[in-house]
Amino acid sequence: MIELKLKHELNNYQLSINIKDTTPKIYAIKGRSGRGKTTILNIIAGLKRANACYLNLNNRTLTDTENNKEVKIQKRNIGYLFQDYQLFPNMTVYQNITFMAQHSDHIENIMHQLNIAELSEQYPRQLSGGESQRVALARTLSTKPDLVLLDEPFSSLDDDTKDESISLVRNIFEQWQIPIIFVTHSKFEAQSLAHEIIDLEVSR
Hints:
It comes from Staphylococcus hsinchuensis. By secondary structure, this protein is an alpha/beta fold.
């Protein structure tokens, strides 16, 4: 279950998001560059404070600005895939994936599911764009999150790799059945993957 009510002033514009669902969905937050898409993800993740926000995830209130409640980032159990992936260049693929979680069958299963087990000893500089994305996604899933945030996850990929990655995210959702929120400026990406598309309500 996810409930999100968010209002935030950004560069003389007001961001407004409302989500309330009892069953998991994939949500696309669509908008042009500079419209605050990443800001919304940062607020959900707890990296930024909103002017007004209520966020409840699986009956846990993570943010309630009206009552001055803000659960710390590390206790939210939210996975966040950043746009530039943010892999540590001096760590192997395996070290990157286990940076926030210890070795377990869960980690092994993720690596096999994402077809990156054979890359475990390689370094980020040796990876293609698609491989880097899958490694970053594995790290995002390593802590068994209750919600996954994806920031422009397909923007740097070529068309073939983009199609593969869209299918990959869809398969992750079908197997995990957890809500996924991704931001994009692409109508194609939003329509190809999301169950619900949220066009940012922006007003002067």
